[in-house]
Every structure is written in structure tokens, then in C-alpha cells.
């Protein structure tokens, strides 16, 4: 029987690569739902190719125009509510959450409530509401299967291992395009330079997050919840070649690493095929061609966002949601050329300093804190 898949964020980088993986295994998957934001032309092409039963778009005002290009039998919804309805539909077995930002939080929660397995590429969901989401998944017996290459690597390294014997998790990072710059040089960084990632092809927001290393900070918080480990036992290491995707160190001193070329289709496929591994025609790793693997400590002066993420995670409560929302707003303003590159970290820190943290938040507290942080970031930037 084919697994019935819904893809949230189908027109983004991860969404497109997910559909590419699915197309390689037509006997194993059926695409029953697609949700996307503003790239309606690409979404229309995906819909006509995969013929899902349900489609969700972001804006209500686009419904008439998009309805006109869809086959009549396809159900069309919009907004977060429409995406949540799609994710929780009876026809869905597994939801790939590849949408960027906390907009993916409510649809993911609704999918879990409906008993759907989650292939998680939306790290902001666990950053903002990790305890709530993981507790709900456990109560519903739902699998949370990591898609991010780093968390997929750790997930694979832990297969068959006793989790109580883990000493620490080591998340690797490429270091992005600016790991060899000085703090002073970052003041002149342009949007175009920040979008030139040396190893990975990703969306604009996540590429900027990689340049600031906030992406790694978000992954630290995500790892804390995915693998139920303390922040003190998570380490970040710069590995410019992006061949070792992450490592697990055990109490006896053994270290297990997962390796592969920097190709997101591999962890996407593993999340969809788990617990099996399927043969594919993707390029394979040639260590002789790679030549060497190197590692560095991340520099605190270049990557203050990484430390801010650790601080937010340690504070807990609503602070990670506030940090994440402030970052999303700051990155958006940088991409709009309203603030400079170093201002991203400065703005996040100022918003965090202004926040009265709620220790044990419910979903409404998290949503309110997220909204407050975005407004506070805009207010501080305008000043």
C-alpha cells in the first residue's frame, strides 16, 4: 500500500526536493495534499503533475484566480486554517512540514492530534513549542522523523543505541560564507553576499540564518527536544566540507558520525522510508575526492546569534519563541535592506532583553509572545 503524503511548503527548496524523491518511488507514495505560500505558478505545476486531492494557499484573495487553473475535483483551502485542515485530513498518512517559520506550528499540532506521522523540516515548530509538541506526539503515538541533515544524522547514529549512554551530541555547521571575516568586515555585508552559501542550496531565510549561524542555534534547541538531551550536552562545531552531518559521542569515548554528500534528498528519503533504506541514483560520497575533513570552534565574535539561541533555550518558557520570532522579523528586514547584517543579532538581543518570560506556556502564550516579539522588533528597528 502506498503512503499518502501531504507536503506543507511544497514550492520551497525542501518541498520541491521532497516531491523529487516521491517521483522516484511512485509505487510507494501518493501525494494527496500540497500547501504553499506565494509561488502559485510553481504550485499549479505541482498540482497538475501530482493531482492531489487537497491544496491550500496562503491568501484568501488568490482563491478565485487559483481555483480557475485547478481541476474541479480538487479541494482548495487557504490560510493557516486551511493548511491545518489539509494536514489533519483522513486521507493523509504522513505530513512533510517544510514550510518556513512558526506559521507551521498550528498545522503540525493539528496533524499530530489527528495521529499523522511528521517528517519535520520546520525547525521553528520545536524551537517555539518543543515541549508541547513532543508531549503531544508521545501521547498520540506519532513519529517525529527529522528531515534536517543534522538531526537526521543524529537520529541515524542513535539507531540501536542506549540513549542513557550518550555523552553529547555534536552538531556540525559549514560556517557559511563569513567564517573567515572579521567582526568589522561584517558591517559591510550585502544581501547578495549573505545569500551565497558555500555548500547548500536553500531558501532565502534559511540561507541568511546559516550566514549568522542562527540556523545552528535553532537546531540546537530542536535537538534538545527531539532527543531529550540537556543543552549542556550539545556542542556545535564548524566543519566547512559539510560531509559529516553530525556526530554522537558516547560515555565510553566512542564517536559515531553520519557522512554523505551535501544533498538534502538523502535525509528526506530516509525520513520517508524509515525504518528501511532504499536504493537510489543520487551521487555518492567519494572520500578520496573530498581529500580532507577539518573542524573549527565557532567564533563568538562572528556568530553572536548562536550564543543567543543557547541563552534562549536555557531560559526556556516563551523565550525561544520570542528569539525565533525576533530573528524572523530581523532577517526579513535585512532582506528588505532596512537593517544591516550585524543588526540582526543586535535586534534579537534587544527583543529578548525586553521580554517577560512565561515559564510554562500554553499554545496561546506562545502565539502571543511570537506576535509581541515581531512587533517589538519592528518598533526597535524603526527607532
What's a concise summary of this model?
The protein contains 17 helices and eleven strands. With 383 residues, the protein is α/β, with parallel strands linked by helices. The radius of gyration is 20 Å and the shape is globular.
Could you give the topology of this structure?
Elements: E1 3-8, H1 13-24, E2 29-35, H2 40-50, E3 54-57, H3 63-67, E4 75-78, H4 79-87, E5 94-97, H5 105-113, E6 117-120, H6 123-140, E7 144-146, H7 149-157, E8 166-173, H8 183-186, H9 191-194, H10 204-212, H11 214-226, E9 234-238, E10 244-250, E11 255-259, H12 265-273, H13 287-290, H14 304-315, H15 319-335, H16 343-354, H17 363-382
Parallel strand pairs: 1-2, 1-5, 2-3, 3-4, 5-6, 6-7, 8-9
Antiparallel strand pairs: 8-10, 10-11
Helix pairs in contact: 4-5, 5-6, 6-11, 6-15, 10-15, 11-14, 14-15, 14-16, 15-16, 15-17, 16-17
